[in-house]
Amino acid sequence: MLLPLEEDVEVDEQTFSDEIIAAVDSGRKIEAIKRLREETGLSLKEAKDAIDALSVERQVDPVIAAAMSEEGGAVGLIKLLVIVAVIVAAYYYFFIS
Fold first, then answer.
1. What is the pTM (predicted TM-score) of this model?
2. How high is the mean pLDDT in each 10-residue block of the chain (97 residues)?
3. 88: how many CB neighbours lie within 10 A of its CB?
């Protein structure tokens, strides 16, 4: 899928490396822009537009993105879900029953 950019620059989704996608997903846009410029030779404006378009396309809940980036992916998300489940269970045990 081609991402829409201003001017006549076309960036294919395959242009983005795993590191760039991970940086965008965890909210590190500046790092993603730097990596994209290094890998493709795009200008600053072109790279920023491409990263902004990718960011909009891959919008992720900030809490989930933080958990995934800090713990290395799904492991962090699973830990977050377990913590939430324990809190809900404790609340139910102490306050509802």
1. 0.52
2. 50 76 86 92 91 80 60 69 92 85
3. 10
Instruction: Report the C-alpha gap between 31 and 17 in whole angstroms.
Output: 12
Indicate the angle between helix axes 44-57 and 18-25, nearest 10 degrees.
Answer: 70
DSSP 11: E
Strand-pair category, 2-3 with 11-12:
antiparallel
How many CB atoms are closer than 10 A to CB 50? 26
User: Which of 53, 44, 58 minimizes the C-alpha distance to 10?
Assistant: 53
Report the distance separating Cα 38 and Cα 17, nearest Å.
Answer: 11
The pLDDT value given to residue 71? 52
